[in-house]
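Morning, I've got a small favour to ask if you have a moment. You're getting the sequence in one-letter code plus the fold written as tokens. Thanks so much in advance, here it is:

===
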Amino acid sequence: MRALFLSFLSVLLTQAAEGPARTFSARDLFGLRVASDPQFRPDGGAIAYVRITYDISTDQGQPSIWLVDPETGVQSPLVVDESANFAPRWSPDGQRIAYVSSSPGRSLAARPSQSAQKAQAILGWFARYSSNEK
């Protein structure tokens, strides 16, 4: 047992002395994904969040809205297009998600939360959202 432990320790120390196989480079930044602004559905059955990916050709981040199942960890895209989409907010009944979009004519939009249906432009509906509203 002691020989096995010493052998394992030797391998660890050798790897540590050699350092990582590759160092992190500036180009690696464009492979990162950033998650922000998590919003729990009122019943807790899903989480909407903003996922930002980076494009090396434009040197800019591209925010999109994704859903994650908190029980399984499965993630799925909800609003992914060439526009910037962010600030998701659930309706009080959890059936729709409102969000801000840079898409022309759709600065505030909403869509059913379980559907890939086209988003609808909204104004007053988003402004009336409140976590206290029942």
